[in-house]
Amino acid sequence: MKIVIEEYSSDWRILFELEKEKLESVLGNSSIIEHIGSTAVEGLGAKPIIDIMIGVTDFTQVSNYIQPIVELGYTYVYAYEDVMPYRRFLTKEKDGMRTHHIHMIEKDTEFWVRHLSFRDCLQNNIADREAYFNLKKELAEKEWKDGNDYAAAKTEFIKAIEKKISNQRQYRQGSETVHLVIRPLSIKDAEDWVPFFINNPSDKFLALSFNASPPLEQSKSWIERQLVRYRENRYGLLALTDKITGKLVGMCGLLTQEVDSQHELEIGYHLLPAYWGKGLATEAAVHFKRFAFDNNITDSVISIIHINNTLSQRVAEKNGMRKTMHTTYYNMPICIYRVYKDED
Length: 344
Prior knowledge:
This protein is α+β, with helices and mostly antiparallel strands. It has helices at 11-27, 63-70, 110-124, 126-140, 147-153, 155-172, 190-193, 215-231, 280-294, 310-318, and strands spanning 31-36, 50-56, 75-77, 88-94, 97-106, 175-176, 180-183, 235-242, 248-259, 262-271, 300-306, 322-329, 332-340.
């Protein structure tokens, strides 16, 4: 059999909303209804089947919901319940073609979280979305025994995305080093980060215009860029706070970057000038190197450093990195420091 992959259609969202209204009319407030699968992701091509996930609070009551849904034109499919006893599966067809799937499960379970996280990752990450679409188009050129074989062929990609999501979730949970508590940033940190933009000797090494707006606005903009990275599953700088005082001392973390058309994972670090020279940047940078390697996220990490920024270059060297190349980045002359996992 051939799998038909269509270009994304905004009609898919409309079809979901129409079906959601019908389901809510028979289920009332007893459940949460979500649009999942590829048709839920704007810009992603898919088989034109609307996947719907219904989350119920008490799965022991799920049998009470099946007949009202069947009366909306669905067929109850129990064939997979021996391997997926935590799910009830229903389908709808039109003119002999499958149009809708319903996955009814207990909300907040692993299945629930995994499917919503996968959807959200593809919605927020263009590169992953395009890679998934290209894979599906490639697979659609082949002949398949059935839809299950086609689904199995996507498993490796899906597992890789799920691993990425898991790493990102762990990354944002925060951690500690000897002297630091590491946590996600929030816009509430903006005032404490303002000194970074006032008479900072390192400003000439950064691809930023420090005179474009007041320091507080610069600070908010800086933090908002990291919050976007969090949402898009592109890591992002995390807050470094003093373990004793709780004060913000700087930021450090992993950053997805593109350098000379190559995708890289950078360890970035920025400290408030008052905390320079105390070894905190090195302590944080080593921590994030270990996170990247221990979780098998990448085979190497880099730091992008201005050619005249000798202090940051020393931090990179203490992190086991060595200078591997010179290039330009945002029109600045920079050097790339790199360390490989098998060298660490």
